[in-house]
Amino acid sequence: MISLAGRDILHSWGKFVFTGIGLGLLIGVTLVMAGVYRGMVDDGKVLLDNSGADLWVVQKNTLGPYAESSSLYDDLYRSVLAMPGVAQAANVTYLTMQVQNNNRDVRAMIVGIMPGEVGQPGWPPQLVAGRQITRSHYEAVADIATGFKLGDTVDIRRNRYTVVGLTRRMVSSAGDPMVFIPLKDAQEAQFLKDNDAILQQRRRTTENPAFNRPGVPGLLDAVIASQSTNNYVNAILVRIKPGYLSHDVGANIVRWQRLQVYDRVQMEAILIGKLIATSAKQIGMFLVILAVVSATIVAFIIYTLTMDKIREIAVLKLLGTRNRTIASMIMQQAIALGVIGFAVGKITATFAAPLFPKYVLLVPSDSLVGFFAVLVICVLASLIAIRMALKVDPAEAIGG
Amino acid sequence: MSGKGIRIEDLKKRYGTGDAAVDALNGVDMQVAPGEVVGLIGPSGSGKSTLLKCLGAVIEPSSGLMALGDEVIYHNGWKVRDLRALRRDKIGFVFQAPYLIPFLDVTDNVALLPMLAGIPNDEARRRAVELLTALDVQHRARAMPSRLSGGEQQRVAIARGLVNRPPIILADEPTAALDSERALAVIRILEDMASQFETAIIVVTHDEKIIPTFKRTYHIRDGITYEEAGEGRLLNSAGKLT
Predict the structure, then answer these.
(1) Cis check: omega of the bond before A182, within 30 degrees of 0
(2) Which terminus has fewer CB within 10 Å in chain B: N or C?
(3) Looking at residue B238, what is its pLDDT?
């Protein structure tokens, strides 16, 4: 038996191909939307992986440092380092801001890292060019997504930094590329006010009789010094010794240091379950809408194509064609349209994904699920046209 | 009548019920022998299309009898379970417009019916080409219907009607869209095919130029058929002049 659907498609291939391309662009958008979500999840995981930490020590009763703000004294890491099972502990600060470079600015996450050596928690694990930070001030390692080059100077607050190294896939959970600078500089950047505000604050402090007592000459200087320095960090990244369980080490830190500790699983749950949950729902809604729109378009197209063939269907029925042959013809055409659309959509998504400013991760399993979803949508969408075709009276071919 | 051919006795069809009931067929009697081409003539609303639909097993008559050769297909109810298969295997249709399937080439338009009946594609196409040759359109075998002239399309439609070797062909105004020369050619083809394949052919027509070509003609008026007896005289089902 010849394929009626195939012959019809070959006969009016232009209609099918152009309709398939239109549908394909819609499917492409759907795949990219799924890729955006996957990219957000992957960014979160990469953030955790690249931090090199087994535990995140943060301010008590907070979900810091990524989902909520968290402040810890910067000397706390020493006591954490002394806890059983802790191999390394390092302070870290995170600050998202616009970084200036040659009259343009780039949104980036400024990461303050402690002096040390490669492999210390918080440090960029690998570089694609240049070297790690070796000086205590004014050097930066930037993710290549910032667009900075080796030797570039970038302005962060009032200080100018030289880019000495470039790294890659070091991004925040929001997808902003990271710029690593020395911890002290980062603490200053988090706290530093403009000169006028500093003068204003000093004047207020000086004029406050509680701080400016005649009998206590060093008090005012001490207060002003404490107001203009920042002794806080956002988190302590901890790497545990082999043979220790992260749960046990974390429980000890919580008990003795009155802090909040999250392990990798918990931090991933915070990032994916809380931080990007709203965005994920947003994308989910878009996916549902796109699926409904796709189904409506396929249904409308197949219905229109079937309506165009109503006389032929009446003739086929009059000549004794079985209902299932006619239904199969319509369903095969809907599926063919879906296959063409999916192929176009997949190609579109593959070529369009790198053009997006944030990371778009196209996962093969999503494509597979998408393919079967498209087939199901096409089959369901064809049911309306099939119902209509089966109701066609063969007598219409005779007329009268 | 024995063998093939068609026999219709006292066929009636009523649309609607009660006061709204309309008797479209009021007792039709017809007999067409194998190899015979008869004309069916009547004004609009006389019941031609209803009769054609009943004969084509598209609508169910209200009462009466229809038989294809020795096989009674309707006697106050369908006697055949699968009307679709009946239409496919035993009734050929030729329409006013050819209604060829636009996305199949000429050969496959003709071969489609045997294929639907389960005959292998090669055999179905061989039969199609044989008929196309008989109808002198074999040179357009690979052409799409849109590339054919009106006469060629109608010949392909006739080939499609004949391809399953049905005992009966119902032709609904097959020459309406053709000029005189082509219309007469189509009737000649139908006569040739009827005698070659022992097929009974009923041609419904308004076409004055082809009516004289029929050896026998039925007139239908108010749902009743009369056979023409020459010189404008009509015989009713009892064989009496009316």
Answers:
(1) no
(2) C
(3) 63
